[in-house]
């Protein structure tokens, strides 16, 4: 005891009262002496101003070979950091401008530091071994076995700061707040689990050997490290801190999910999607979050994205019934009926009474049936039936591009180009690189005789899918058709009608499905035939043209002209009426009027034909013709014939007189040639007497006699 007191007086325990108390506790007569804990000594020193004072127990040095004390100190710029001079000289006094808070292991604020101390930033752990005591060891004492210094890094690894990670502080909340406000720091706990000291320390008493051994066993070598500043401690795996972080993340994710549910109930699916996404980002291993977002994407019509979320939900939880059901619905909406059937069967394995899965399984079977029928009908070129099947299948698979493409292609083949273009354009708005949609878009232009633009779309489709057979064939046909048609037009302009006829015929054999282009080719060939005076063949070509395209005005006009040339006036009037109803122009109106006049003229008596003269016959030719025809059909000439023959000849004799009366008068002839109604002009041919004309032409009675004529 005397030796220890001597050491205290000599200042041989520079590391504070902890080592001194260890020495005192080892003495046999010190069991009854009161012992203060290091925290109590620490607080007493703070209350009394700190530092070594006369009459108090001075710190003593540990025995030689004692393990070094572990101290947690702040960085070079923090409170309690030793200056370089203090580290070298072992100064026992803190800087008056910035007092240093003593550690829990050292009641005295004055603590020398080794030159091995590393100022490694805020919160770094610094190993400060005590100076060697080999030269001043008390005689007769047995030093404890030497232990190697603890391998402590120069600095603790920096911990990431996040919203869910809390800063663990070594000081109590009260002390921390006082330190932040600038007041004197409070006592610092060596470990967060130790209790805070009571405000009034108990009287100093020396511990028993058992208590000494228990306190010394708190750290290897009987020493405890002191923490002087706030540090971010990394909690071990499985400790309470990560569990609280996980629980906090779950609560936050649940909050996001509830907000998403609220927006979903309001049918604000975009906001619901955003909150479900936040929930997934916060807690990515929850199957229900993916399931909810999949349902939202389905309501937004984004079935392909919804399929990914639904598949992820069942990967996380294979027993998630709603996840399998949503996956099946997405597959079915995208036209994958077989995959949808497997998903619905899985639902029934988990819940055999699930009526929704049972109904959806029937829907998938229906889609498969329509798909098979459509394939057969397409081969039969029954495009209307294919369109019908695809319409029914799309009721269950509204997002299936394959069904839409097949429908659009059939619409184009049926000549319903606006509908086909609308379907293809809708797909291209969602996926501009869809080769099938590009092909259908080009096919519509190709069938509308926009061959140059069609070739551009076919080339673009082949860029996206070089092995696209339909696009390749259509592109080749379009180029060949364009070349043949241009060559035929060139030959026609040059007057080479036979060559033009051959080229148009070759072009017609390239693609029988190209309705509009073939209609133009038929009309062009009909024009060639009319130039070659093959009027009946020309009429046939024009008829084929209007069969392919009943709105093709040029074909109607060409055929009507051919009808006029062959005196088929009724057919000509019908074609001109069709043209005028479609395009009411002055030119078309005049053509119709001319045809109507010719039709009317064809229905009245043809006086030129009755006399057997041409329309351009002169007056003398008309008189000679009348003389001949009148003598031929005069009733007296046929007096010996039957009554029927006499009646017929009398009728013809009368017509010959009418013809001569009209054609011999220049004014009447002009009105007749213009198609005017002669009865409207006051000429009533019903009361006409042919005998009077005959007598006037051949003279009075006895001027002409049929006696002796056979």
UniProtKB/TrEMBL annotation:
InterPro entries assigned: DnaJ_domain, J_dom_sf, TPR-like_helical_dom_sf, TPR_rpt
Alphabetically ordered keywords of this record: Acetylation, Chaperone, Cytoplasm, Cytoskeleton, Nucleus, Phosphoprotein, Repeat, TPR repeat
Positions with biased composition (Pro residues): 141-154, 187-205
Primary location class: cytoplasm
UniProt keyword Transport present: no
Listed Basic and acidic residues bias regions: 248-257
Positions of the UniProt region annotated as Disordered: 45-224, 237-257
Compositional bias (Low complexity): 91-108, 171-186, 206-217
Pfam families documented for this protein: DnaJ, TPR_11, TPR_16, TPR_8
Acetylation is among the record's keywords: yes
All residue ranges annotated as the J domain in the record: 606-676
Cellular localisation: Cytoplasm, Cytoskeleton; Nucleus
Chain positions of TPR repeats: 253-286, 435-468, 481-514, 553-586
Any one annotated GO CC term: cytoskeleton
Role this protein plays: Acts as a co-chaperone regulating the molecular chaperones HSP70 and HSP90 in folding of steroid receptors, such as the glucocorticoid receptor and the progesterone receptor. Proposed to act as a recycling chaperone by facilitating the return of chaperone substrates to early stages of chaperoning if further folding is required. In vitro, induces ATP-independent dissociation of HSP90 but not of HSP70 from the chaperone-substrate complexes. Recruits NR1I3 to the cytoplasm.
Protein name: DnaJ homolog subfamily C member 7
Organism annotation: Anas platyrhynchos platyrhynchos
Gene designation: DNAJC7
């Amino acid at each position: 005891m005397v030796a220890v007191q001597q050491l205290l007086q000599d200042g041989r325990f520079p590391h504070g009262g902890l080592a001194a108390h260890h020495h005192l506790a080892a003495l046999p007569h010190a069991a009854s002496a009161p012992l203060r804990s290091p925290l109590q000594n620490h607080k007493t020193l703070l209350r009394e101003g700190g530092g070594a004072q006369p009459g108090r127990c001075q710190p003593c040095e540990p025995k030689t070979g004692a393990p070094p004390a572990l101290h947690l100190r702040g960085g070079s710029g923090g409170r309690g950091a030793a200056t370089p001079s203090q580290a070298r000289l072992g100064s026992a006094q803190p800087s008056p401008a910035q007092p240093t808070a003593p550690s829990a292991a050292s009641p005295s604020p004055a603590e020398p530091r080794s030159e091995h101390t590393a100022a490694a930033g805020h919160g770094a752990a610094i190993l400060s071994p005590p100076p060697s005591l080999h030269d001043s060891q008390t005689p007769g004492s047995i030093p404890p076995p030497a232990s190697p210094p603890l391998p402590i890094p120069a600095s603790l690894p920096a911990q990431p700061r996040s919203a869910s990670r809390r800063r663990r502080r070594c000081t109590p909340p009260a002390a921390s707040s006082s330190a932040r406000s600038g007041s004197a720091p409070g006592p610092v706990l060596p470990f967060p689990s130790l209790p805070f000291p009571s405000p009034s320390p108990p009287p100093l008493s020396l511990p028993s050997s058992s208590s000494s051994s228990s306190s010394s066993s708190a750290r290897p070598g009987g020493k405890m490290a002191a923490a002087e500043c706030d540090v971010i401690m990394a909690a071990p795996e499985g400790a309470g801190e990560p569990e609280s972080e996980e629980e906090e993340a779950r609560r936050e994710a649940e909050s996001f999910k509830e907000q998403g549910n609220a927006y979903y109930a309001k049918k604000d699916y975009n906001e619901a999607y955003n909150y479900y996404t936040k929930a997934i980002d916060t807690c990515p291993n929850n199957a229900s979050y993916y399931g909810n977002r999949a349902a939202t994407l389905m309501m937004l019509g984004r079935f392909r994205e919804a399929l990914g979320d639904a598949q992820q939900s069942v990967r996380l939880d294979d027993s998630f019934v709603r996840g399998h059901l949503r996956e099946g619905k997405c597959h079915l909406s995208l036209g994958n009926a077989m995959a949808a059937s497997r998903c619905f069967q899985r639902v029934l394995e988990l819940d055999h009474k699930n009526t929704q899965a049972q109904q959806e399984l029937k829907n998938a079977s229906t889609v498969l049936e329509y798909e098979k029928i459509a394939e057969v009908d397409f081969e039969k070129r029954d495009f209307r039936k294919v369109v019908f099947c695809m319409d029914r299948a799309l009721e269950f698979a509204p997002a299936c591009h394959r069904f839409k493409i097949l429908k659009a292609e059939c619409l184009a083949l049926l000549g319903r180009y606006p509908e086909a273009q609308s379907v293809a354009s809708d797909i291209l708005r969602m996926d501009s690189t869809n080769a099938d949609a590009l092909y259908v878009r080009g096919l519509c232009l190709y069938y509308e005789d926009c061959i140059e633009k069609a070739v551009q779309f076919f080339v673009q489709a082949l860029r996206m899918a070089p092995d696209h057979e339909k696009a390749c064939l259509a592109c080749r046909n379009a180029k060949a058709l364009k070349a043949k048609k241009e060559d035929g037009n060139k030959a026609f302009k040059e007057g080479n009608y036979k060559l033009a006829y051959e080229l148009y015929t070759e072009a017609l054999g390239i693609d029988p499905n190209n309705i509009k282009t073939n209609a133009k080719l038929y009309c062009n060939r009909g024009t060639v035939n009319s130039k070659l005076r093959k009027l009946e063949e020309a009429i046939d070509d024009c008829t084929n043209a209007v069969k392919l395209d009943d709105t093709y005005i040029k074909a109607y006009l060409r055929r009507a002209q051919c009808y006029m040339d062959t005196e088929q006036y009724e057919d000509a009037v019908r074609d001109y009426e069709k043209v005028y109803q479609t395009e009411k122009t002055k030119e078309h109106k005049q053509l119709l009027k001319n045809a109507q006049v010719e039709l009317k003229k064809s229905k009245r008596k043809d006086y030129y034909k009755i006399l057997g003269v041409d329309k351009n016959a002169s007056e003398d030719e008309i008189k000679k013709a009348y003389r001949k025809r009148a003598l031929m059909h005069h009733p007296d000439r046929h007096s010996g014939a039957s009554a029927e023959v006499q009646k017929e000849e009398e009728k013809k004799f009368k017509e010959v007189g009418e013809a001569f009366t009209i054609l011999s008068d220049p004014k009447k002839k002009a009105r007749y040639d213009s198609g005017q109604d002669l009865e409207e002009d006051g000429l009533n041919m019903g009361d006409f007497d042919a005998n009077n004309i005959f007598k006037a032409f051949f003279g009075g009675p006895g001027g002409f006699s049929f006696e002796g004529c056979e």
